[in-house]
Write a structure and sequence with these properties.
The protein is mainly α. Helices cover 63% and strands 0% of the residues.
Length: 331
């Protein structure tokens, strides 16, 4: 069974969660092992080369993903590329690059951010407002809150995304209202749930998360896992572990990757088995992306050994995901 994710790896990715609390306590058998950084360090120049090329890729999806990798791996030396992409022809890329300038606390980017406040697209203007908040201009918070009720459902969803990233729990009222709004689009409701999880509101576990994990739809289960990972509570952690036995490979790999984010290597064998069975790494599908992404989260030697091959994949997306894993491990 192949599952499809509309926004899976993009900055505008949305997550659904659903929940019933558990009482069991899980103690990971081990955290991420203290592996030698020699292999990731040796691969770092190649990973940086892949990342730079991806920031200039002809496909806006790849450029967008590359922006995320710059932020997540803290590549401050690439901020000149981020500034350039703030003027990209593709609106999602402008949005991501503009928000990235705030995420990276780039005070030298304030002038280009202010230029995006006058962008033709309302979504990009919101990203600029978000970045201004990150650069100590809190008056722009009101712009995000107003847009949380915007008539345009894409603008509304992006406002909710940015409110979640901003991290102010006083915005939970707006997020819950959007989540419960029967007139809102599905993407608005999904983004509201994701942002509530980002704000670590444990009520979401009982209210929404568990229902997604037991959904008959694999897409729902993946979104539930990602939401549980964002929530990060012990109950959420335990719930993710139960998904390592799911019938769908993508669901199991997502669980392994999210556990890795939480410092738990329990899913390493699931990832290793997938890589052994798909050794050419030439397919840019969701399962392979998840497996390669999980390498950087779990970081055990038997998984790290796959990174050189992944960096040479025929797939642009797999190469970029491998670069992300290398740069995370080489920190």
């Amino acid at each position: 069974m192949m599952i499809k994710f509309g926004f899976f790896l993009l900055t505008v990715a949305v997550v659904l969660l659903g929940g019933c609390e558990t009482t069991s306590v899980h103690h990971p058998e081990e955290g991420r092992p203290a592996t030698s950084p020699a292999v990731p360090q040796a691969l770092k120049p190649r990973a940086l080369e892949v990342l730079r090329a991806s920031l200039r890729h002809e496909n806006p999806y790849v450029r967008n993903h590359a922006i995320e990798v710059v932020v997540e791996t803290g590549q401050k030396e690439m901020m000149s590329e981020i500034i350039r992409l703030m003027g990209d022809t593709a609106i999602p890329v402008r949005f991501s690059a503009t928000a990235a300038a705030g995420d990276m606390q780039c005070f030298g980017c304030e002038q280009p951010i202010r230029e995006r406040l006058k962008d033709d697209d309302a979504n990009v203007r919101l990203a600029a407002a978000y970045s201004m908040i990150q650069l100590n201009n809190p008056e722009y918070h009101a712009d995000l809150r107003r847009a949380a009720d915007h008539a345009d459902q894409t603008v509304r969803a992006n406002a909710l995304l940015l409110l979640g990233k901003n991290g102010d729990r006083d915005d939970l009222d707006l997020l819950y209202r959007a989540m419960r709004d029967d007139t809102a689009s599905e993407k608005v409701k999904i983004q509201a749930i994701d942002s509530i999880a980002q704000l670590k509101d444990a009520r979401l576990y009982r209210n929404k998360l568990w229902a997604l994990l037991i959904s008959k739809y694999a897409d729902d289960r993946v979104m539930g896992i990602r939401g549980m990972g964002a929530l990060g509570t012990l109950d959420a952690h335990n719930a993710i572990i139960t998904m390592l036995t799911d019938d769908v490979p993508e669901v199991r790999l997502c669980a392994a990757e999210q556990l890795g984010r939480l410092g738990d290597t329990t899913g390493r064998e699931e990832v290793a088995q997938y890589l052994r069975n798909h050794a050419d790494l030439s397919r840019g599908d969701v399962a392979t992306m998840l497996a390669v992404m999980a390498i950087g989260r779990i970081g055990t030697p038997e998984l790290i050994d796959w990174l050189p091959k992944a960096l040479d994949s025929q797939s642009d997306v797999i190469r970029l995901t491998a670069a992300q894993s290398v740069l995370l491990l080489a920190k």
